[in-house]
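Q: I'm a student working through a structural biology exercise. My instructor gave each of us a protein and asked us to get a predicted structure, then write a short paragraph describing it. Mine is arsenite-transporting ATPase. I'm not confident about reading structure output yet, so if you can add a plain explanation after the C-alpha cells, that would really help. Here is the sequence I was given:
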Amino acid sequence: MLLMTDTTLNIDDLIQHRRLLMVGGKGGVGKTTTAAAVACRAADAGRKVLLVSTDPAHSLGDAFAQPIGNAITCMTENLYALELDPDEEVERYLDKVSAQMRRFARPDQFRELEKQLRLSRQSPGAQEAALLERLSQIIDDSSQDYDLVVFDTAPTGHTLRLLSLPEVMAAWTNGLLRHNHKAKQLGKVLDHLSPGKDLDSPLQDPNQHANQNLDPRSQQIADTLLARQRLFHRARRQLSDPHTTGFIFVMTPEKLPILETRRAVDSLQESGIPVAGIVINRVLPDNVEGAFFAARLATQQRHLDDISQQFSKLATLQITLQEDDVQGLNAIRKFSGMLSQDM
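A: Happy to help. First, here is the predicted structure for arsenite-transporting ATPase. I'll explain a few features afterward.
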C-alpha cells in the first residue's frame, strides 16, 4: 500500500530529543499499544521512561498482560508505568482541597464544607479536575527522575483543557476574591493572576514569587492560588514547546478515524500543541489474496489517498496489520521494531 507523503515520522528522533510524548487517537485504533511500544523502544535505547495512562479501563495493564495500577511500576529495565485511577485521584484531590480550605474557613463552617466536598465527589467535573492536576504535577516533576514521559491519552480532552486552565482559573479566582470584601489587599495578586499581562507578570516566569505586603491570611490564600495556577501554567508552557513535546496520533485507514483525527489535529494546532505526526496502524499488506481482500485493499487505498491529501504537512508512519494480538512485554518489544524508519 502506497501513501504519498513528503516525510516519514521518525520515532527514534522523537525518543531522543523530546521529553514529553503524547499518544492519542480514536478508541480501538491501537493507541495504547503504540504508546507502550514507543516507551519500550525508548527504554531499550537507554532512556529512563515513565509511561502514563489516563484510561479508566486499565488497558495499559492489559497490553502488558500484568497489573500496573495507580502506583509507579517497573516493567523492565528503564521502563516504568502508571495507570491513573480517576476515583483514587478524586479522593486524593478532595483531601488536599479539604485540608487547604480548613486553613482559611472558620470552625463553624467545617460541617458545611465537608458536606459540599462529599457532594462534589459525584460531580461531573471532579474526575477531570483531579486528573488534570495530577497530570500537571507529573509533567512538572518528571524531569527530575525520567528522561522521557509517554502519555497514553485522549487527543482533545484532557490536553486541551489543561491548556485552558490558567485562563479559566484566572477568571474563577478573580470572581472568588472580588466578592470577598476582606480580600481587597489581593488586588495586586489578582492582576498577576490575569493572563495577557506584561513580561514582568509572574505568569511569564511561573517560578517567581509575586505577592508581598499582604497580611498573613491573605498571603496564605494568595500563595495557594498562585502556586496552583503556576503549576498549570508551567505544564501548559511545556506542552506548547515543540522542543519538549510532540503529539503522535494513531489512526487506522478508515473513514471515522480519519474524520476524528482531522478534527483533533486542527484543535491541537489551534491550541499551540506541536503535532509530531501520525502512525497509520493495521495497514493490510499487498500480498493478501481473494476477492474479499481485493475489495478491502481498494477501499484502504482510497483512505490512504485521503490521508495523504488531508495530512500532507504531517509526517506519517505505516504499520502493517499484525498476525496476532500484541500483548505482553515481548510482543510489545517486537511491535516496537515496526516503529523504525528502516521497516
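A: Here are two points you could use in your paragraph. Residues 216-239 form the longest helix (24 residues). The longest strand covers residues 275-283. It's a good idea to check both against the output above yourself.
Q: Great, thank you!
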